[in-house]
Amino acid sequence: MTPLPATDALKPMSPIQARQTREFIDGLASEARPYWDMVEIGDELSRDLHLSAELVILYADGVEDFNPWYEGWRMNSWHVEGQSPFGQAIVPPLLVSHFVLSVQFDATRPFSIGSIHTFHDSEILEPILVGTTVRITTRAVEKFEKRGRRYVRHAVEVTDVEDNRVYFRETRDILSL
Length: 177
Hints:
By secondary structure, this protein is α+β, with helices and mostly antiparallel strands.
C-alpha cells in the first residue's frame, strides 16, 4: 500500500482529497507556463458582470466600506433604489477593479505560474448604479523588462453593456517569471 502524502494537520484530508490535490499540483507542474509566454500584445478578453445589490453587499462587507450610498437593498424588501448624491445607490468605485483579474486570466488556458500584480492606475469616470451590467475588457498593450524582470501591461475598460458608456479605466502591470 502506498503511503498517503503528508498533509497539514489542521486540515485533515481524506484519501480522495489527497489524491485529487496531488493530481492538481502535478497538472500545474506539467501544463503551467510563465504569464509572459502565454500573452501576446493585442490579446483581448472580456466578461460581463451584473452588479447586483447582493454582490455590492458582499464586497462592501468584505472591505468594510459601510457607506449608505451603496445600499440598494433593505431587509425584507431586498431590491430598492437606495439613495446617493447621484440618485439611486451606487457601486463602490473600486469593486470593478477587483474583478479584472478574473478577466485577465483566461480559464481556457493552462494555469500561469509566477504572476504578481505589481501596479495599477485607476481612473473613475462616473458612478455605476447598483443593478447595472458592465463589460470588463482587458487588452495586453505592452511587454517590457525592468531591472531584469519581465512585465505585461494591460489596459482595462469597464463599460455599460446597454449603451457602451465608459465608467472606469485602469492600467495594470503583471510581473511574470
